[in-house]
Design a protein that fits this description.
The chain is α+β, with helices and mostly antiparallel strands and 367 residues long. The protein contains 4 helices and 21 strands. The chain has an 8-stranded mixed beta sheet with strand order 7-8-9-10-14-13-12-11, covered by helices on one side. It has a 5-stranded mixed beta sheet with strand order 1-18-17-16-15. A 4-stranded antiparallel beta sheet has the order 2-21-20-19, with no helix packed on it. A hairpin with a 3-residue loop joins strand 16 and strand 17.
Length: 367
C-alpha cells in the first residue's frame, strides 16, 4: 500500500507520479479520438450538498443511488476511513460497511443494474502489485466479497471502473494518450486469482480546461460511471468528463470507436469521482479535500448534460477491427511515424513536468 503524503507534499507527489506515468506509458498524445467532439461551455458545477462526515475527505469513488449516494475513500491511513459509506440525499452518512480485510487502494466504485456495489481496489501508483481486487457488495449486504485479478501484461495504475449492462466490470487504466481497457477473462471466484484480458484502448480528445495539474491533469483517467439506462458511459480526468454512447450495450466498442461529448469540470481541487444522477440528465462529481484549507468540505457538484446529438455514434473505420483479447494488439497501438512523433513530443513535455516537480523536492514513498 502506498504511504499517502499529507499537505502540499502529497499533491506534488501526485503531480510527479502522473508526469512519470506519462513519460513511461504515453505512446501518443491525447487527441486521437475520432472526429471533433461536442464540447459544452465551461462552467462551475451547481452544488448539491456538502459531505460533513470527517471520515470522508479523500473521496475517490461515488455512485448515486435511489435514496442518496454510496462512496469510498482513496487508500486511507486511518481505519475509520476504510469503509463503504452510504449517504442520504443531503450527504449525511446513514450506514457504513467494513471490509473483511484491509483493502490496498480503493479508487472507484460502480453500482450494477441490480443494485450490487462494486468497489475497485485497483490503485497502484508504484506499479508494484501482483494482483488487484474488486469488492462486491450485494444489495443490503453486510460483508463485501473479495475477488482478485491479475493483468496479462504487468502492473498498471488504475482509478476508473465501469459496470457494463450485463454486470461485467471493465477497468480503465490511468494512462495519458491511450488508457487500457481490461475485464475478467473468466468468471470471478472468491479465493482465486482470475486473469484479466486487455480488450481495447481509449483515446480522449485534448482540451484546455483549467485544473491543478495542467496538461497532465487533462490526460489521465481518474474515474468512470455507467448511466442508469446503460446506454451511455462517462470517463473523467482531473479536468473534464467524456461521455460516450453505448449502442447495443457494448461498452468496449463504445470506448474504442466512439466520439465522446466533452463536459468541462474546471478547477476541481482533485477530481477523481463521477456518477450519473438517477434520472441520467446530469453528471455528479465530488473532489478530494485532504490538501485543502482546514474546514473545507467535499461538495457534490451537478453538471447538466446536453441531449445526445444524432451524430454521436461510433465511427466506422476502413480497416477491419482487431480481435479483442489478452494477446490481441489494439489498432491504435500500431501507429505509424506521425503517432511516433506526437508520442515523442508528449513524452518530452511530460518529462519537463517531471523535472520541474522533482526540482521542488518531490519524492516517492511507498512500500
Amino acid at each position: 500500500m502506498d504511504i499517502r503524503l499529507r499537505g502540499p507534499a502529497r499533491r506534488r507527489r501526485a503531480t510527479a507520479g502522473a508526469a512519470l506515468a506519462a513519460v513511461i506509458i504515453i505512446g501518443v498524445a491525447p487527441g486521437a479520438a475520432a472526429g471533433p467532439p461536442t464540447v459544452l461551455s465551461p462552467s462551475a458545477g451547481t452544488p448539491v450538498c456538502q459531505v460533513r462526515d470527517g471520515r470522508l475527505n479523500e473521496i475517490s469513488g461515488m455512485a448515486a443511488t435511489g435514496d442518496g449516494f454510496v462512496m469510498v475513500n482513496d487508500s486511507a491511513d486511518e481505519e475509520a476511513r476504510r469503509r463503504i459509506f452510504f449517504l442520504d440525499a443531503e450527504c449525511a452518512v446513514v450506514r457504513t460497511v467494513r471490509y473483511p480485510s484491509r483493502p490496498r487502494d480503493t479508487e472507484d466504485l460502480g453500482v450494477g443494474a441490480d443494485g450490487t456495489v462494486w468497489v475497485a481496489d485497483v490503485g497502484d501508483n508504484d506499479r508494484s502489485r501482483r494482483t488487484i481486487a474488486l469488492w462486491r457488495l450485494r444489495p443490503g449486504g453486510k460483508r463485501p466479497v473479495l475477488y482478485r485479478l491479475a493483468y496479462p501484461d504487468g502492473p498498471h495504475d488504475a482509478e476508473a471502473l465501469l459496470v457494463a449492462g450485463d454486470g461485467r466490470p471493465v477497468i480503465v487504466t490511468k494512462q495519458g494518450g491511450g488508457a487500457g481497457l481490461y475485464r475478467p477473462a473468466a468468471a470471478l471466484r472468491p479465493g482465486a486469482t482470475v486473469p484479466l484480458a486487455r480488450v481495447g484502448q481509449v483515446r480522449l480528445p485534448s482540451t484546455r480546461t483549467r485544473n491543478p495539474f495542467f496538461f497532465v491533469g487533462r490526460a489521465v483517467v481518474t474515474g468512470g460511471a455507467t448511466a442508469p439506462d446503460g446506454r451511455r458511459v462517462v470517463l473523467r480526468t482531473y479536468a473534464d468528463a467524456f461521455e460516450f454512447d453505448v449502442p447495443g450495450g457494448d461498452v468496449v466498442a463504445a470506448l474504442t470507436t466512439g466520439t465522446p461529448r466533452v463536459v468541462p469540470l474546471p478547477d476541481e481541487p482533485q477530481g477523481e469521482s463521477v456518477t450519473y444522477s438517477r434520472d441520467g440528465r446530469s453528471l455528479l462529481t465530488v473532489s478530494e479535500t485532504a490538501d485543502q484549507p482546514p474546514g473545507t468540505r467535499p461538495t457534490i457538484l451537478r453538471y447538466a448534460l446536453a441531449p445526445a446529438p444524432a451524430s454521436a455514434r461510433p465511427r466506422t473505420d476502413p480497416a477491419p477491427a482487431a480481435p479483442r483479447g489478452a494477446d490481441a494488439p489494439d489498432r491504435a497501438d500500431r501507429g505509424g511515424p506521425t503517432s511516433a512523433v506526437v508520442g515523442a513530443a508528449a513524452a518530452v513535455l511530460a518529462l519537463l513536468a517531471l523535472v520541474l516537480a522533482m526540482a521542488r523536492g518531490t519524492g516517492r514513498v511507498g512500500r
